Amino acid sequence: MRKLFAALMLTAAISAAASGEEGGFVKSDFYKTMGKNDKASVLMVHFGTTFDDTRKNTIDAVNSEAEKEFPKMEVREAYTSRIIMRRLKDRGIVKDNPAEALDRLAAEGYTHIIVQPTNIINGVEAKTLEQQLDMYKDKFKEVRIGSALLTTPEDYKSVAEIINKETGKLADDEAVVLVGHGTHDSGNAAYPAMDYTAKSMGYKFYVGTVEGFPEFDDVVKGLKKDGIKKVVLMPFMFVAGDHANNDIAVDWKEALEKEGFTVKVKLTSLGMMEDIRKMFIEHAKFMLENKKEDMISKKLFYSTQKD
Q1: What contacts 101, CB < 8 A, 6 or more positions away?
Q2: 237, 226, 26, 228: which is closest to 125 by C-alpha?
Q3: How far, in Å, CA of 307 to CA of 305, rounded?
Q4: Same domain, 186 and 208
């Protein structure tokens, strides 16, 4: 039985290599799926922010970079936070939500869409977007969605290296505390995974969350255990909005100081780092040559194979 299992696994591996499968994806040229009169677009999807300077240095910046990287395609944007969209509308700034953006693209004759969210983790926001896109499969000939920032093990390592480059050399008793949003969703596991990955690479990073795990107390426990006295406090979010300017720069800073740490706040969000933005662009470009594997069809295929 073991020999049979091993043979099946080897056959699957050879088949995957031959078909170009890679980590749940199969090789598929996006442009070759297009006909003569088809039109393609890249839809950048962001949670959004009401902070004008932050929007310019993060959302607008990555949108502009997408336009340069996809010269053959129309680049559009959409926001997912209805609260942020309402507040912006009160100021005369109108943003489409994903459904509105997709309806507009369909009405304008676009047939092929690559959607690239700027989500940090594969949490509620990312999963909700995927559910929305499933409702639009019949309106377009091809819809592909790029991955969140932290998806593969290589993503975690790359992010750690980028942040290390941003923070520079630290003193022996100094460390970086990265504060993410956090979620009740299973995607929250990305935060402790990021913490573990960074430490395994030798970086003195401690990852916490505002509304998930690790919590503030977990971060403090780790800092004290390792003899850290000084902290560089940074947002682990795409934009430095309300959470960064209030929960992190004020609440977390004051709480850490009460615990005896010397705290320096560095409000450089992930989206303000050029190399992080490049990662999102690369995730979108990956979808030009790959599409998600149809696991249902794959399981059906294996179910019909004889032992």
Answers
A1: 43, 76, 77, 78
A2: 237
A3: 7
A4: yes
CATH code: domain of residue 105: 3.40.50.1400
User: Is 8 a domain residue?
Assistant: no
**Tens-place pLDDT, residues 169-179:** 999 999 999 99
Q: Are residues 125 and 190 in the same domain?
A: no
- The answer on 284 and 266 residing in a single domain is no
Domain residues for 40?
A: 19-150+275-294
Quote the longest CA-to-CA distance of the chain.
Answer: 68
CA–CA separation, 46 and 44 (whole Å): 7
The pTM of this model reads 0.88
- Asked whether residue 290 carries a pLDDT value surpassing 50, the answer given is yes
Total domains present in the chain: 2
Helices (H), the chain: 2-19, 52-57, 59-69, 82-90, 98-107, 124-134, 153-167, 190-200, 216-225, 242, 253-258, 274-286, 295-303
Beta-ladder partners of 46 = 79
Q: 48 to each of 70, 93, 177, 290, how far by Cα in Å?
A: 22, 12, 23, 28
The answer as to whether 63 is a domain residue is: yes
